[in-house]
């Protein structure tokens, strides 16, 4: 990874801890979106599989929020915005696939409430995102010179 440390690292000093702090905020925002959409769709649709729509909408908004937070506060890289976003989303698509399957199992097969199931699934997807973002999304070749392209 090239470029200066994010502003949060000036205070926290440990990138893993900074990732966890921002990740906690992102998780709260993403879970809040999930809960909000789920409550809305439960009252409007009463559709058995509304949690899939809830997950999709909260995923899209949550990923965009998380991308900006990680890119500017933790991994502070410049240039390659669209490439970074595509790589970032590819990490989350792995988590999203696991999330869809796990939600189906917990909610449809085991009868758990969608919000409780999603809370449990967050533990697994958080671990996936740390390794994916650290070693893939915001990785820069070590020999490459820092680029000062416009973001």
Structural write-up:
With 151 residues, this protein is mainly alpha-helical. It has one domain. The protein is built from five helices and no strands. It has helices at 9-12, 15-44, 50-74, 81-109, 114-137. Helix 2 (15-44) packs antiparallel against helix 3 and helix 3 packs antiparallel against helix 4. The longest helix is centred in the first third of the chain and has 30 residues, at 15-44. The protein is elongated and about 50 Å long. The chain starts with 8 loop residues before the first helix and ends in a 14-residue tail after the last helix.
Write the layout of secondary structure elements.
Layout: H1 9-12, H2 15-44, H3 50-74, H4 81-109, H5 114-137
Helix pairs in contact: 2-3, 2-5, 3-4, 4-5
Question: Which descriptors apply to this entry?
Answer:
151 residues; 5 helices; mainly alpha; 74% helix; elongated; disordered C terminus
Brief overview:
The protein is mainly α. The protein is built from five helices and no strands. The protein has one domain.
């Amino acid at each position: 990874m090239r470029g200066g440390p994010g502003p949060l690292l000036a205070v926290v000093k440990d990138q893993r801890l900074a990732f966890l702090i921002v990740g906690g905020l992102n998780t709260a925002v993403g879970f809040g979106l999930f809960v909000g959409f789920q409550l809305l769709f439960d009252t409007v649709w009463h559709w058995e599989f509304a949690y899939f729509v809830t997950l999709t909408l909260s995923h899209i908004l949550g990923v965009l929020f998380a991308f900006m937070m990680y890119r500017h506060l933790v991994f502070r890289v410049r240039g390659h915005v669209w490439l970074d976003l595509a790589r970032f989303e590819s990490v989350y698509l792995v988590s999203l696939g696991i999330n869809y399957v796990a939600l189906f199992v917990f909610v449809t097969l085991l009868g758990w409430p969608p919000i409780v199931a999603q809370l449990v699934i967050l533990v697994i997807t958080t671990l996936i995102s740390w390794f994916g973002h650290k070693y893939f999304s915001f990785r820069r070749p070590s020999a490459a010179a820092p680029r000062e392209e416009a973001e």
